Amino acid sequence: MKVLWFLPTHGDSRYLGTSEGAREVDYDYLRQIAQAADQLGYYGVLTPTGRSCEDPWVVTSSLIGATKNLRFLVAVRPGLHQPALAARMAATFDRLSGGRLLINLVTGGDAAELAGDGVPTSHSERYEASAEFIRIWREIITRSHAGESFDFEGKHLSVKGAKLFYPPLQQPHPPVWFGGSSDAAHDLAAEQVETYLSWGEPPADVRKKFDDVRARAARLGRKVRFGVRLHVIVRETESEAWAAAEKLISRLDDETVARAQASFAKMDSEGQRRMAALHRQGGGRSRAELEISPHLWAGVGLVRGGAGTAIVGNPEQVAAKLREYQDAGADAFVLSGYPHLEEAYRFAELVFPLLPLEHALPESLPGRKLSGPFGEVVANNHIPKQAA
């Protein structure tokens, strides 16, 4: 499996829904997280998009030189720019980063945000436009390797003689990732993308979504890979992990939760509707009410839009839950934890050694056999022995 981390360009904190414990998200902090993910051996990082976030292309471009192997999963938003420009941006980024770009196709689901961005379209129109957008994007980049141009006349978008003079390093194009839970989203995933992402619903529900997309892709003669977007709360013991989960939402009040849920209810995103429904199953905030599947906790979704579930447990329990999703068809995981810098280290140290990772880990990762001294050197010359 591939494991990616998350760049919190919308903010970071030790507590959800409050300014207490919050930290300023500036370039230095984002660079710290990106470099930690790079050095710890994460496959890549997802950067969110939307009006509550810093621009993902500007942020990730600024981090190319600060990292070596880390891939960047960066959003393209149909309607905010044209597919020809998006193709040019992607090719440039891929070339300058040495082939480290992944594309996250985002259609959007917040009507107020979309209207503010000048994209006041219905759900079905957005998916029609997104399908045309990514098709044009793919064709422009794919044909650039042969120096060819591309013509397209669609319902929402058109290009004539579109051409890219500097193709990306990855062929035929940087891989496209995409998530959505509606029928239109599943059709788009089957037709256009390389990796389909689901938010962290219970594994049986995720399997149904994967099976549906897989079947639709097969009818088109295509194969799609799958991934899951989740938060993680891992500690050395299960009791410590659940205590950390409860602490994360310990500063929330009913008004803040109600306001967040009212905002989510206005969205026309099927995925957001499914996330909101998960934490309402129990109607409260206790562990029993928010644990919607063994070690799967819906507390994050009380106030956070998008991915709202977290795997909670000790390292073995967290690894076992990830393998459940792998058994359902996932081979990629986009993870995050609060705060993101410390939790990137914690997850890598505690869980990476238990996972069948596709990407190589650095020799300096905690828990691996090392060739030189490590840990704190005490009594001037005493070097701690390595753990078994």
From TrEMBL:
CDD domains: Alkanesulfonate_monoxygenase. Pfam families: Bac_luciferase. The keyword Transcription regulation does not apply. It catalyses: an alkanesulfonate + FMNH2 + O2 = an aldehyde + FMN + sulfite + H2O + 2 H(+). Transmembrane segments: none annotated. GO terms for molecular function: alkanesulfonate monooxygenase activity. Keywords: Flavoprotein, FMN, Monooxygenase, Oxidoreductase. Catalyzes the desulfonation of aliphatic sulfonates. PANTHER family: ALKANESULFONATE MONOOXYGENASE (PTHR42847), ALKANESULFONATE MONOOXYGENASE-RELATED (PTHR42847:SF4). Belongs to the SsuD family. This is Alkanesulfonate monooxygenase.
